[in-house]
Fold this protein.
Amino acid sequence: MGYARRDGELCADAVPLATIAAGVGTPAYVYAWSVVRDRYRCLEAALDGVDHRVCYAVKANSNLAILARLGELGAGYDIVSGGELERVLRAGGDPGRVVFSGVGKSLADIDFGIKAGIDAFNVESASELGRLEARARLLGRRARVSIRVNPDVDADTHPYIATGLKESKFGVPPGQAVELYRRAFASAHLDVAGIDCHIGSQIADIEPFRMALTALLELVDALGRDGIVLDHIDIGGGFGITYEDEPALDLDALGDVLRTTLGRRTLQLRVEPGRYLVADAGILLTRVEYLKPAPASGYRNFAVVDAAMNDLVRPALYQARHAVEPVVDGDGAGGRWDVVGPVCETGDFLALDRELELNEGDLLAIRTAGAYGFVQSSNYNTRPRVAEVLVDGDEFAVVRKRETVADLLRLESAR
Ligand code: LLP
């Protein structure tokens, strides 16, 4: 299952992508549910034998259908906004399995989280702890607290997505965390629940996770000696995957290291994976509008497609390389092509210098686009956001309709 060629045609599970393009149009995001389900099972297997909870990082792909189905598999959720909490609730997710991350939780975010009865606020500063306590007092409720610790660990990833270094805005240093736990422990409106960190995204090595967990456990043990007992330890997400040929994180080996490092402690282990669960499940389906072969030496071959940087910003923003595959075996002009969109800037490319055989009208699949794809899309150039399609076995459904220009203009007025 997942993505495979059948009779020369790329299919999502049992559905030819050409069938989806004919029915839904292009561009479109397509998600193969079997891939998410398999990844979830692999993660469960890697953590077998440890009391654990998977809190899916909603930001990676927040489509309601994905959230609902992950909830049915038993996942909790890691959210970063009131909007994401609303999505989880609409998808039928259990607020009691939600953790709330982020350095800038607004008053409204905090009130919503408290009223919904989420499991824990991953608190990132002394000021946030103060705000959380004040709001819980005002609402006559108690809020469960985890302190996000910045363990100062180098995760060796793209600088924009490394989050566990001293100079990043996230969490508090271990020394300050102890003070915050004492405050939370003494408060009549806060309950000490856990401890968390998130050191970055797309991490291939196990060692940074081991170092982060070790740093957090030192704190857990020190707090325990003071009588402050935590019920969970959350090491965040960041599990690296293969986009082209880079090594993925060895999840089973990570599981072993986590088991060993935790030792006989009875804390629940939590993880917050986003990309690992959904990236490979998704493709961006796009059609070649025009071919502009190089007119002379020194020029480049451009395939202008109907998707653009506003639909998938990762290549422009993080120098990300997504594999590009023709949906039907190519018989067109061979060569090395830059796959670019219609947006008016040179940074608008989906892939550069790829060996492809292309005709105008061909369908292409931009692979590994299920995480941080649609969710980071925008309406730049007044381009309506594309449809999202969920494939399950031999069936597919539109789980988010294509926007129209009328949708975009609905909130605006000319005076
Ligand atoms: N937990 C927290 C607190 C996070 O900030 C993130 C991601 C995750 C979990 C999930 O990380 P994952 O397992 O997906 O690596 N837009 C970027 C990635 C940004 C990641 C932000 N935080 C990209 O397209 O590569």
